[in-house]
Design a protein that fits this description.
Length: 277
């Protein structure tokens, strides 16, 4: 019985089963990898949310008056106790809240038992003129620790109290107090969070809440196992494509003539030679 000839095209019906199996396997591997990757990202988001709503620490326990910003503490909840300095109130321009653009109302607090101040973002206001008066007196306020802002936007209006960003290095020359290398964004009162039961000066609640601009970084190992699973599934998909390619290539390749098989043309030629002899 003559051997079956190989298909001549990759679209040959004989290869449809291999193509379908490859598509199903690779699609499944890709989808499972995406699912594991999304799980790893969700783990990171969950940890960030947990850090943002952790039990607040004392501001002075995380940073000193002359210390550089502790980057490992970015976005962490802190409590600041001290005295409001209303005459030093400033506004940060170009701050968005939903579809509106307005200003941050920022007033420094002279930190208790120190001679240094920290700027506190009290909240958002649509216009400087409509902002409520800056609070006065002693305060214990809860908020998120943030590093000094820095952009390449220049402050063209040196004579007013409106700034393009909350740059501590720029503000040092415009205030009579020593400043911490950080600022605090006042946190809203939320249920099921320790900060909700802490005292907050009433004067800081007359403006709209501002979310923490920069959130804490999750640990490097958070979600790592799911990420490795995702990579593993994607490698399986690549391996599946390789196996399919090898199978199709070998199937389309012409087969060599087996010496044990009779070649009909050679047999006919031999018979003619013998008859002539």
């Amino acid at each position: 019985m003559a051997a079956q000839s190989p298909p001549r095209s990759i679209f040959s019906p004989r290869l449809w089963g291999a193509h379908a199996l490859m598509v199903v396997f690779v699609t499944g591997a890709v989808l499972l990898g995406v699912w594991q990757y999304q799980s790893s990202q969700q783990d990171k988001q969950d940890q960030v949310a947990e850090l943002v709503h952790a039990k607040p620490k004392a501001f002075t326990d995380l940073i000193g008056p002359n210390d550089a910003f502790p980057w490992e503490q970015i976005g962490r909840p802190v409590t600041v106790s001290g005295i409001w300095m209303p005459d030093e109130t400033i506004f940060i321009d170009g701050m968005e809240r939903g579809s509106q653009v307005g200003f941050w109302a920022v007033t420094p607090v002279l930190v208790e038992d120190t001679e240094s101040a920290v700027y506190v973002v009290r909240g958002w206001t649509p216009e400087v003129g409509s902002a409520p008066p800056a609070p006065r007196g002693h305060v214990t306020i809860t908020g998120w620790l943030q590093p000094s802002d820095w952009t390449d936007v220049a402050d063209d209006r040196k004579s007013d109290n409106v700034f393009p960003q909350l740059d501590i290095s720029d503000l040092i020359s415009r205030t009579s107090y020593d400043l911490y290398s950080a600022y605090v964004v006042r946190s809203p009162v939320e249920d099921n969070w320790p900060a909700s039961s802490m005292p907050v000066n009433d004067g800081s609640t007359d403006v709209a809440d501002v979310p923490a601009p920069q959130l804490p970084e999750p640990e490097a190992t958070t979600g790592l196992r799911n990420l490795l699973y995702a990579i593993e599934w994607w490698l399986f998909g690549i391996f599946g494509i390789y196996v399919w390619w090898r199978y199709v290539r070998d199937t389309l390749r012409p087969r060599p003539v087996d010496e044990d098989e009779e070649d009909p043309e050679k047999t006919a030629q031999d018979l003619r030679v013998r008859s002539d002899a």
